[in-house]
Amino acid sequence: MGQARSNPFRGFVDVMSEMNRIREVGRGGYEPASEDRERTQASAWIPTADVFAKDEDLVIRMELSGVARENIDITLHENTLTVSGQRESDLDDDLSFYVHERLYGAFRRSMTLPAGVNEGDINAYSDNGLLQITVRGAATAKAHRIEIGDRPE
User: Fold this and answer.
1) Contacts 24+ apart (CB under 8 A), 114-118
2) In what helix (H) or strand (E) does residue 86 lie, and over which residues does it extend?
3) In angstroms, what is the C-alpha Rg of the chain?
4) What is the DSSP letter of 69?
5) Is the distance from CB of 54 to CB of 37 less than 8 angstroms?
6) Strands across the sheet with 122-127, in order?
7) Max CA-CA distance within the chain?
8) Could you confirm whether domain 15-89+97-140 is CATH 2.60.40.790?
9) Mean pLDDT calculated for residue range 98-107
10) What values do phi and psi take at 52, rounded to 5?
């Protein structure tokens, strides 16, 4: 059986923003952002992702079908990795949809990486709509246990 690993990706989803999005969808259903309505996390699409350890590396695989490589931006700032971009629609505005489920427009997904990761530790490639980001050595980050002592007198 494999060794249990701590999850260095706590904070991958901004819980408060996600709860607000769910509340908005529950109130009135999903309405795509229009030009007269500001695009927020509640109206933006969020690509699905898998995050896993492979040997000593952390691997992030994100589904970005229909997003051109030049429309994807990956940044690292103060141990926060952010993947953002834009999926452009290639459909005519005058179409009458029977079902319209695919989301278009801006997306953004951020996660906190273990301390000490720098941009030289990260590589990424895109193939057939799947973005894969590998963070070398990040899966070996260990949590440190803090002992609870007696109350000082």
Assistant:
1) 114/8, 114/79, 114/138, 114/141, 115/79, 115/141, 116/141, 117/76, 117/79, 118/76
2) strand 80-87
3) 19
4) G
5) no
6) 49-54, 57-63, 130-135, 122-127
7) 75
8) yes
9) 81
10) -150, 160
Domain ranges of the chain: 15-89+97-140
Q: Which residues contact residue 46 at a Cβ distance below 8 angstroms, ignoring those fewer than 6 apart?
A: 107, 108, 109
Tell if the pTM clears 0.85, that is, is over it.
Answer: no
pLDDT for 90-102, tens place per residue? 787 788 877 777 7
Q: Which residue has the tokens 């990486």?
A: 113
pLDDT tens-digit series, residues 25-59 = 665 555 544 444 455 544 567 888 999 999 999 99
Q: How confident is the model at residue 146 (pLDDT cuts 50, 70, 90)?
A: confident
